[in-house]
């Protein structure tokens, strides 16, 4: 279980915190969505929840991050990496730049953990299979499309078999099919007990993926609850978040004097 | 004779590897700029007793020509040897093998990433140049126009590269790259027994040549 308590984080060189009083609990096997307008603080929360802020990028953190009951303050990044995997938006900057094939790219994380070669190979194969990109194994990672690159980046994280995964807009560059593949992989990962925090603009994805959604606005959590409740909140658009199509359609139906339950029933 | 022998051996190796033509072209290109300055400076400024011809206040001496020829041959020998290494060695395999033999993974990464970064930076520069041209920047005109276009091109290339390095270093850290200790590498380049024998043999020959040179058995001139 990953727990953030009263976390406020200030980037190095800035006087004011970018996020304030963040309380976040990621239980084993849970998928929590994080939505908010651009610059609301989603990416910063991802960095804080993963421990990279401040362990890698500096800055000041008040409050605490604990993982499985152990405080993470002062831990080196490679120790954090074994506990929390973090994925970013841009697949190009997530490539190591030294792997000749996708397989080597995915195997890099387990190899860095010092695992025996057989274990590294098994994990890389498993991660590629989970995202159904085994056919990319021999491709040059620098010559993939944005969507393929993002799937490889996620596979690279999954190969480390982390118990906690933080993803910052993982489907930003994916087409609907790629988004569906990622959603399936995340669901099956959660099924193994892995806790996931997914920051996303695509509320349709979060609507079907997450059990719980948090809304961040101006660096603060302004809503936190069951997905249907939070994504159906009338204030969502005011926080700069587009409601999922299910909610928008139900509202449209209601505005026309029809029963919104028709949408829920799929009529 | 030494540099000529090296050139002959390198060219023979390049012919076997099928890169002789490209090797000569690349080596000549590398050598040419320095060779021109060496020839000009040596031929006309090196003191000598045999004057071949005179241009203004400068005498071209036979000793200057000999020195220039020796220097150019040496430069060409160095250039061909380095070019042959570059053309016949996969840099990634080389770095991985060094790591397998005990080099720090961090150093290996820096070396490999530097090699891999060159085409990536060239691609980024091409994209930025296209974007700048679409906004009216002249990057293909006269030398002066190209010089004016250089700054708006190089600044975004450098800045975007720095940003990418920062993001990439974060992405590597979350994949435990900073973990101390050895890694179990998945792959090692082929190393046949005759290659090992040849390598050790060359090392022994090199050591013997150094000793012979220091002892004055082998002369130090070309």
What's this entry about, in short?
The complex is a heterodimer of chains A (267) and B (222). With 267 residues, chain A is of the alpha/beta class.
Q: Main attributes?
A:
heterodimer, A: 267 residues, alpha/beta, Rossmann fold, six-stranded mixed β-sheet, four-stranded antiparallel β-sheet, 22% strand, B: 222 residues, mainly alpha, two-stranded antiparallel sheet, 7 helices
N-to-C CA distance of chain B:
5 Å
Strand order of the main beta sheet of chain A, please? Answer: 6-7-8-3-9-10
Radius of gyration of chain A: 19 Å
Strand-residue fraction of chain B? under 5%
Tell me about this structure.
The complex is a heterodimer of chains A (267) and B (222). Helix content of chain A is 39%, strand content 22%. Chain A contains 12 helices and 10 strands. Chain A has helices at 42-50, 52-55, 77-83, 91-94, 102-112, 117-130, 146-158, 176-191, 203-209, 227-231, 245-255, 261-264; strands at 2-10, 19-26, 31-35, 60-67, 70-71, 84-87, 164-168, 195-199, 212-217, 220-226. In chain A, strand 4 (60-67) and strand 5 form a beta hairpin. The relative contact order of chain A is 0.16. By secondary structure, chain B is mainly alpha-helical. Chain B has 3 domains: 2-89, no CATH class; 93-173, no CATH class; 189-222. Helix content of chain B is 73%, strand content 4%. In chain B, strand 1 and strand 2 (58-61) form a beta hairpin. In chain B, helix 1 packs parallel to helix 3 (62-88). Chain B starts with a helix and ends in a 7-residue tail after the last helix. The mean pLDDT of chain B is 82. The chains are: A alpha/beta (267), B mainly alpha (222). Chains A and B meet through helix 3, strand 6, helix 4, helix 5 and helix 6 of A and helix 5 and helix 6 of B.
